[in-house]
Design brief:
It is a single chain. By secondary structure, this protein is an alpha+beta fold. It has helices at 2-30, 38-70, 133-216, 224-242, 244-280, 284-311, and strands spanning 84-104, 111-114, 121-122, 127-131, 315-316, 321-326, 339-357. The strands form two sheets. A four-stranded antiparallel β-sheet has the order 1-7-6-3, with no helix packed on it. The chain has a three-stranded antiparallel β-sheet with strand order 2-4-5. Helix 3 (133-216) packs antiparallel against helix 4 and helix 3 (133-216) packs antiparallel against helix 6. The longest helix has 84 residues, at 133-216. The chain is rod-shaped and about 235 Å long.
Length: 358
């Protein structure tokens, strides 16, 4: 039934179109125009319909734009809630932190081998470089000898100081004794010399009196008195030259004079010994300086020995990381304190999970 209705409608449309064509033909005849061919007429009709449709579409777009410009936007809202926004990024690689450690040469020893280059990763405890074994052994022996020398030098200085103090003490004691001895010997010699002088003066005075008496008896040369006086004069002359007391005293004076000279000479030696001891002894400040210097040298030698002991296995990484700088060169001897390499801490990453909390 529907198909039949559609067929009837189609026929009606065709009849209406034929009527319209007849009316148009009549109108054109009235206007003195020649009628268009049917095919051309169809093209004109189609073009007209397309132009109208296009114009309507353009007007529709312009209208919508104007309406949208004047219409406020529609905003959809919802209640605010707290939650996590999570996103997982899967990747692999090395993440280097800002934690960087610089390694310096603790001793001046030749580098043996460099095991790691710049950019290479190292595990904790892995040797980055090693030192030459012979040079390292020589440095160790040198530090041991330095420590031994330092201890020996300190003992030697203390011993010399003790000797100087002993010399000063001995000199002070001896000088006090010598001073007394010199005084005693000098006084004793003077006393002996006084006795000698008095004895000689007495003999000389006696001889002078005998000479006077002899002169008085010169007019009696044959008398017994004269002869006795002559004998006494001769005896006095002999006594003055050979008196036993005078000779004993003079001998004693000679002995004590020698002792006195020895004491004076020994006193000079003691003065020199005291002066030398005073100049070489350690005062309080000097002793403190010696002890401090000795202790510093001991610390330095022990630090060297400790450093050599730790370097026997090479320089190892303190943590997992990557070498960022390498200054050590195989066969080169760095100075103590010179930078060897830099080491940056890192951690491996894969499937990094990023989470934001709102």
């Amino acid at each position: 039934m529907e198909d039949m209705d559609l067929h009837k409608q189609e026929k009606r449309k065709q009849k209406e179109l034929k009527k319209e064509e007849k009316k148009r033909a009549k109108a054109e005849k009235k206007a003195g125009k020649t009628p268009m061919e049917p095919a051309r007429r169809k093209k004109v009709i189609k073009r007209s319909i397309f132009g109208v449709v296009a114009a309507v579409f353009v007007l529709f777009i312009i209208y919508n734009n104007i309406a949208a410009a004047n219409t406020k936007p529609t905003v959809f809202t919802m209640p605010v809630t707290k939650g996590d926004i999570e996103q997982t990024v899967s990747t692999s690689g090395s993440v280097v932190s800002n934690e960087v450690k610089t390694y310096f040469a603790p001793v001046s020893v030749k580098i043996g081998t460099v095991n790691i280059g710049v950019g290479e990763m190292v595990a904790k405890g892995e040797p980055v470089l090693t030192y030459d074994e012979t040079d390292l052994a020589n440095e160790k022996r040198s530090a041991e000898l330095k420590l031994q020398e330092n201890e020996g030098s300190y003992r030697n200085s203390i011993q010399k100081n003790n000797e100087s103090l002993g010399d000063i003490s001995e000199a002070n004691v001896n000088l006090a004794v010598l001073e007394q001895q010199i005084t005693d010997f000098d006084n004793y010699i003077k006393d002996l010399q006084r006795r000698v002088d008095e004895k000689k003066a007495a003999l000389a005075h006696e001889g002078a009196l005998l000479q006077i008496s002899l002169i008085d008896w010169a007019d009696h040369p044959d008398s017994d008195e004269y002869e006795n006086l002559q004998k006494l004069v001769q005896l006095n002359t002999y006594e003055q030259a050979n008196n036993e007391e005078i000779r004993a005293w003079e001998e004693e004076i000679a002995i004590y004079t020698e002792k006195l000279n020895n004491c004076k000479e020994y006193k000079s030696e003691m003065k020199s010994q005291k002066s030398s001891g005073e100049s070489s002894k350690l005062n309080a400040g000097g002793k403190e300086e010696l002890e401090a210097k000795t202790e510093l040298e001991k610390i330095s030698s022990r630090e060297t020995l400790d450093a050599v002991s730790t370097l026997e296995a090479g320089v190892t990484a303190d943590f997992n990381g990557v070498v960022t700088e390498m200054n050590a060169v195989e066969g080169k001897t760095p100075t103590a304190g010179e930078q060897l390499f830099k080491f940056g801490k890192h951690r491996g990453c894969e499937g990094v999970h990023i989470r934001f909390q709102v």
